[in-house]
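Lecture notes, part 5. Sequence design as translation. It can be helpful to think of inverse folding as translation between two languages: the language of shapes and the language of residues. The source text, in structure tokens, appears below.
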């Protein structure tokens, strides 16, 4: 979640400054944020929150998030694909020891000669300092295969979280949380992944791009080609 265009391979751990210029994006990995100074205002998949000093948040892969800091803020940011962060998606830290660790890592990053040992172990230390995941009551099981088949028969309809939640007999917020916990991504990211999966399967069966685009609800063959190219680049 940088203030400018991201490089192709951002460093796993970084110090980032945010200002009044509003940004918005999503990415294919977990992003762990810890506030060091000021207040960062976030809106993650429509849910607003404020990140102050010592507060943190885990943005799940695929979650669209808007961000700005009217008074300016500084955060420690970890970009990681590690699935061990899945139980913490959408959550803040549960232990007070996070802020001292974040400040120490920030000093390491700002130092002319940062400690390679500290930075190497930083992801594991942050995960441990985040605290145990809160236990969540389990509801009815979600039949993910059946849900995927149901969605694949309706690509020409404007499917949203409420539609998926209704199929699973859950509220939209309950479904969104279960999707992050069980699939490691937001509901809309999961839905896009299912659509692309079916498109790839149809293409591998020999169908033309135009026919695959028609069957999977893309507005044009070029739109499908662009989506497949983006997905392939994100997987590299």
């Amino acid at each position: 979640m940088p203030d400018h265009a991201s490089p192709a391979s951002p460093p796993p751990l970084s110090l980032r400054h945010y200002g009044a210029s509003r940004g918005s994006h999503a990415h294919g990995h977990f992003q762990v944020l810890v506030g060091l100074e000021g207040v960062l205002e976030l809106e993650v998949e429509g849910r607003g929150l404020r990140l102050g000093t010592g507060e943190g948040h885990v943005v799940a892969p695929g979650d669209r998030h808007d961000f700005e800091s009217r008074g300016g803020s500084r955060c420690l940011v970890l970009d990681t694909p590690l699935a061990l962060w899945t139980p913490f998606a959408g959550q803040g830290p549960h232990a007070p020891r996070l802020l001292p660790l974040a400040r120490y890592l920030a000093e390491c990053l700002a130092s002319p000669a940062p400690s390679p040992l500290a930075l190497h172990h930083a992801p594991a230390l942050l995960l441990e300092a985040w605290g145990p995941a809160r236990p969540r009551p389990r509801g009815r099981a979600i039949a993910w295969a059946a849900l995927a088949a149901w969605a694949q028969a309706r690509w020409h309809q404007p499917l949203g979280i409420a539609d998926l939640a209704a199929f699973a007999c859950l509220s939209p917020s309950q479904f969104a949380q279960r999707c992050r916990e069980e699939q490691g991504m937001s509901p809309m990211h999961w839905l896009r992944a299912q659509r692309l999966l079916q498109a790839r399967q149809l293409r591998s069966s020999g169908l033309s791009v135009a026919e695959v685009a028609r069957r999977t609800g893309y507005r044009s063959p070029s739109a499908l080609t662009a989506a497949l190219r983006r997905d392939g680049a994100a997987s590299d």
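The translated text above is only one of many valid answers, since several sequences can fold into similar shapes. The beta strands are 13-18, 23-25, 30-38, 40-44, 47-51, 56-59, 65-68, 73-80.
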